[in-house]
Specification:
The chain is mostly helical. The chain has one domain. It is 71% helix and 0% strand.
């Protein structure tokens, strides 16, 4: 049993994924501030102009999809590395 655990601990791909996960945890945490800023800006735009900023809506959708991709990577539901290791998402999740 100990040999099996020792063998798993020596696998580079496990440690590589751990480093990617730490990287994406930092990005996920920082993105909360971006989402908050987008929310405040959209609200201010709505109040001041009476309509939403369409370009910001598109970016917000793409950011939401990106955060979804990070979440499914962190929870082992996907092995696909999110941006910057793949293309920036465009639209809703697949």
């Amino acid at each position: 049993m100990k040999e099996e655990i020792k063998r798993r601990l020596q696998k580079n791909e496990y440690w590589q994924r751990c480093l990617y996960m730490l990287f994406f945890i930092v990005i996920y945490g920082a993105s909360k501030f971006v989402v908050f800023g987008l929310m405040v800006f959209q609200f201010a735009t709505l109040i001041l102009t009476g309509s939403l900023n369409e370009q910001l809506l598109k970016f917000s959708q793409n950011l939401s999809t990106y955060l979804y991709q990070i979440t499914i990577f962190l929870t082992y539901n996907s092995d696909q590395l999110p941006f910057p290791f793949s293309a920036w998402p465009n639209g809703t999740p697949d």
